[in-house]
Design goal:
single chain; mainly alpha; Lysozyme; two-stranded antiparallel ribbon; 12 helices; 2 strands; about 50% helix; about 0% strand
Length: about 325
């Protein structure tokens, strides 16, 4: 009877139940791994978008330029330029645009300057002036995407630093000439007059040394951005944004423009277009836009304030227009 109550001795061949310790350790490890993955996803370490490069911003405006007022000192520079060109009237149309930068523009100099040369004053016909005016209005009314502009900001900054010309003046001319390189023929062919092309509308037909040929090597004096839209395979190219903008800055510098948006800047813009009545309107609008940007920040698609154009014209454009009118009347009487 006693033997029947004694538990049987386990047989050595009977399988023992597996230990649950390993399973619990594996479950714990998987749980910790899952928590880590969820945390990484939520914090963006895993599965998040790759870090984006900083969005290029416009260069900082150097100074908020005061609205110009009429006065002898305000118009002295522009009048000097107009007087220098009044006796050198040749040809007609913008195809006869001045050989700007031809005298003493120091290659690559940060403050490249020249003594005031006898500028060429163009004499476009009424039809040509009207055509030019309509073209400028159409191009400046084009809506420009912000993304399109981002590639130009480093170029403007390099041009300003290299040639000592306010980038807002450079950008305003870029806007006026090709609506920030969005005009239909910016990257091929020439303009309506068959003389000028590219983002900054350089003359390639006046000569024997064209305006473009005089300053086409200006790109060599600044560091070219690693990448930007419309980089051409060979340099210099009138259709390459960096080559063209650097050349324009060099040209403006040679014509007396500096950091200030004043009478010297107006004069350089007047030279850039050509010496005629349309050139006065062109310089008025270019400088008014640049001054407005300096006061209210750079605005891609903002219009130019009419009051600012009137102020710039009264200070700089009106005296030159009066001089042109007097010269035209004098020639008519001969």
């Amino acid at each position: 009877m006693a033997d029947s109550l004694t538990p049987p001795t386990p047989d050595a061949q009977t399988p023992r139940p597996p230990s649950e310790r390993g399973a619990w350790l594996l479950a714990l490890a998987l749980g910790l791994l899952g928590v880590g993955v969820i945390t990484a996803v939520l914090t963006g370490v895993v599965g998040g978008a790759a870090p984006r490069a900083p969005t290029p911003l416009p260069p900082t405006a150097l100074v908020a330029e005061a609205t110009p007022v009429p006065g002898a000192s305000a118009s002295a520079s522009a009048l000097a330029g107009a007087a220098a060109g009044a006796g050198a009237v040749v040809g007609s149309g913008r195809a006869e645009r001045s050989g700007k930068g031809s005298s003493g523009a120091a290659h690559g100099g940060r403050r490249a300057r020249s003594t005031r040369r006898a500028a060429i004053v163009a004499r476009p016909t009424n039809a040509e002036q009207g055509l030019a005016a309509r073209r400028l209005v159409a191009e400046t009314e084009t809506e420009i995407p912000t993304r399109w502009m981002e590639g130009f900001y480093p170029i403007y900054a390099t041009a300003q630093r290299t040639f000592g010309v306010n980038w807002l003046l450079i950008a305003s001319i870029h806007k006026q000439e090709s609506a920030f390189s969005t005009a239909p023929t910016t990257y091929h062919g020439l303009n309506f007059a068959g003389c000028c092309g590219g983002p900054m509308q350089f003359n390639v037909t006046n000569g024997p040394v064209s305006t473009w040929a005089l300053v086409s090597s200006s790109y060599r004096y600044g560091r070219r951005p690693a990448a930007y839209d419309h980089m051409t395979a060979t340099h210099p190219s009138i259709y390459d944004d960096f080559d063209a903008i650097m050349a324009a800055a060099h040209l403006l510098s040679a014509d007396g423009a500096e950091y200030a948006l004043d009478g010297a800047a107006w004069d350089a813009a007047y030279d850039y277009y050509g010496h005629d009545a349309t050139g006065v309107s062109y310089a008025d609008e270019v400088l008014a836009r640049a001054i407005g940007w300096s006061q209210h920040s750079f605005c891609i698609n903002c219009g130019v304030e009419p009051g600012m154009i009137e102020a710039v014209h009264a200070a700089y454009g009106a005296p030159v227009l009066a001089l042109l009118t007097t010269a035209t009347t004098a020639r008519a009487r001969k």
